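ASSEMBLY PREDICTION REQUEST
Request ID: AP-0331
Submitted by: J.K., bench scientist
Number of chains: two
Total residues: 310
Priority: normal
Notes: Please return the full assembly, not individual chains.
Input sequences:
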Amino acid sequence: MSNVFEEIAGLDKLIHEPARLAIMTILSNSQSADFLALQRLTGLTSGNLSVHLSKLAEGELITYEKQFVDKKPKTQIKITKKGQQALEKHWLQLENFRANVQKLKPE
Amino acid sequence: MKSISQTKFLSENYSTLHGLKGVPVGLCLLLISLWANGLHDSTKNFSLPMILVFGSLLLLIAVDQYYKRTFGEVKPTFASRRTQWIGYLTFAILAIVAFWADVTYNLPVNFYGLLFAVILLIDKPKVTLPLNKFSIIKLILSICIILASISPLYLGANWWNTFGVRTTLLGVTMLIGLLMVTEGVIWHTFFVKSLPAAEAKDE
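STATUS: Completed
Returned structure:
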């Protein structure tokens, strides 16, 4: 049986952070979202959100797409294929972790 | 921050939760049926309903812009959009058939209203606790419309005349319009309250 604490250590910290997990969840259930929608859905300040988005972009889990709407720049944020796979893997790891913890419970 | 399941629900249904979009449509239905109720056989001037439709479209555009500027935009997945469009098309076809049946056959049941009530029940976002209040509102509105649509069965064919309404179809359409406006305002309030509180800004 694998060590559950090793499993915890194996979780992707880039995704596991609550704010980033919320961002990834939003993006995985949509084609794209703009900065304002992400801010409203997460409740983060614009500074905090920008920091988290930068980290996710550095990890190639999201991309930015700049468009011009009514001559105004608008950034659409999308999850990448790598980001989608990383998120699914993360949920699977959490489920396996939960299952293993259940097995460790004293009878 | 909300739980992941609530965040997932809000992001999947972001644009459908923009309740105020139903207000111009509801107002248009209500006002046009009020106009139709006051029609005389000799009336051939349709400029007022055309103005109402145009005004509703402008209001709808304004509401859409309000949501984009205040709450941003989450574009639904292609599969979601496809399902939505199939739904709209199906509803449009069924609405035409129901309307035709209502004006052709003088039955004590209003098919247009019943169709609308059914759509309200099935066109609800998939909710997770504790956001079930979205479902409850739709259920209550649906029941009101069903009761109004079958009202001639238990109140008599001409009971709408008591309120100065000439036909069941007009009465049900007025009710649908009014309920759409009410639902839109309530839905919008729920939407705003469901969003997480903003973090305090760093000093």
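REVIEWER COMMENTS: The radius of gyration of chain B is 19 Å.
SIGN-OFF: pending second reviewer
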